[in-house]
Amino acid sequence: MGTLTSWLDVPELTNASGVGHYTTTFTWPPASGQADGAYLSLPPIDNALLLRINDKDVLLLDHARPIADMTQFLIEGENRVQIIVPTTMWNYIRTVASDIMSSAAPNVPYVMDKEMGIPMPGRVSNGLLGPVVVIPIISVVV
What InterPro entries does UniProt report for this protein, alphabetically (predicted)? Predict the structure, then answer.
């Protein structure tokens, strides 16, 4: 698969829940040769993520605006980026919700719709959605 897309757009994953593993490589330094380091910018992630650069964990990322200074992890030549993103269980649970009962109570969709007046929520997008960008940086003394 060449582009990042929601699991909803992959027929085999439409109702799946799990963990997405995304891997890519890039060459360092950039062709211009003018960079002292780089940031990695990711799209917002709904729940959590694990980022590894050249098999080293990058810690303390804000999953709502994930950007990391990856300078210390860069090596000359090919660099490997791994992004691990778990999904929620919702897309799967909603497929079996009508079978879920508790203490012989009516099933979840019935309770939500008939007793609470809340429609069953739809499926949610999962996965790594959006661009992953390497941003070279140059240090300047002012």
Answer: Galactose-bd-like_sf
- Is 104 part of any domain? yes
State pTM to two decimals: 0.82
Rounded Cα gap, residues 47 and 62, in angstroms: 10
E strand map for 54-132: 56-58, 67-69, 77-86
pLDDT by residue (tens digit) across 13-64?
A: 888 889 999 999 999 998 888 899 999 999 998 888 999 999 999 987 788 8
Left (φ > 0), alpha (ψ -120 to 50) or beta: where does 95 sit?
A: alpha
- Domain span at residue 89 reads 7-137
Distance, in Å, from the CA atom of 17 to the CA atom of 92, rounded to the nearest integer, reads: 6
In this predicted model, what pLDDT tens digit does every residue of 90-131 receive, in sequence order?
A: 888 888 877 877 777 777 776 777 778 888 888 888 889 989
Distance, in Å, from the CA atom of 11 to the CA atom of 64, rounded to the nearest integer, reads 27
CATH of the domain at 15: 2.60.120
Written as six digits, the tokens of 110 are: 């019935």
